[in-house]
Amino acid sequence: MSEQDGKERFTGKCQHGKLLVDPDVPCTAESRRRSIEINPAFQRFAGGFDLYQKLFNETDDREQVRGRMHDLYRSRFRESADRPNQDMQKSLLELIESTLKDCEYGDFSPHNFAEKIASSSLADLFQREWNAEAGKIEEASGMHFVNELIAYKIEKNEAISLHIRPTGVRSEDLITKVADGLSLIASQIKNGEIIAKVIVMKSWLLSKELEAKARLLLGNDIEIKDAEMDDEDIAAIQHVALQYNKKSLERYLKTGERPEVRQITMTSEDFISRFLH
């Protein structure tokens, strides 16, 4: 990091993170580390590495646990091998593999992980992923964010797909943010801001294990179906679950079982009647 990078002062917003409490505080590696470390999405992400370190150092079958954890990340990078930003992908894989080695040596800590991210060229990438803003359109994925948590993507044949993204929303605010996001999308469909006749949502949060909780929000009469496992979206959805949900990751590391993904499909009329408040 250059001297300028370490001492530059900003007028209210650090380019590597959220708004600073004091606009006169310099944007330093330390301030970036703090903004990362307190982010709920980072805490969930780091929790997965903490779990891996614990299981790896307790199990009698280290090679199997190691193989599953490394494959979790390598498989995603193989799937994105033909995409742009290959230098960034390479740097990201190097960061992940370095962190996995820390876990295997028993040296991982969330604090050090936050420091590693903050001092890397990937700090902005992680902050954009974890600090989504309403109205933002993510160029790489085509996601349109309606709030910090809910995004939609325009699909073929006047359909949209809904996505719950791994952003820095606190656990106690998740249900409210999901409900607000669905209501906003329903309003925009009704007003013609979003053109959609069919709305599809695929998620690991619709699994049979979590179905009862999902129905509290979606309604008891909604039909939830198994997603087609050859669907190209499934691997990405499972990867998000394994990155940010420790229960799913623990089951995968112990048994090799990946999260179940299910889906709901609604007409625009049904969606509006259910979620427009």
General description of the model:
- By secondary structure, the chain is of the alpha+beta class.
- It has two domains: 3-129, no CATH class; 132-275, 3-Layer(aba) Sandwich (Aminopeptidase), CATH 3.40.630.
- The chain has helices spanning 3-7, 29-37, 40-58, 62-79, 86-104, 110-118, 123-130, 174-190, 211-218, 232-244, 246-255, 268-275; strands at 137-138, 143-145, 150-154, 159-164, 198-203, 225-226, 262-267.
- A seven-stranded mixed β-sheet has the order 1-2-3-4-5-7-6.
- α10 crosses α11.
The string of secondary-structure elements, in order, is HHHHHHHEEEEHEHEHHEH
State mean pLDDT (0 to 100 scale). 87
Helical stretch tally: 12
What count of structural domains? 2
CATH class of the largest domain: Alpha Beta
The backbone outline, from C-alpha atoms, is: globular
Terminal Cα span: 49 Å
Short description:
By secondary structure, this protein is of the alpha+beta class. Helix content is 52%, strand content 11%.
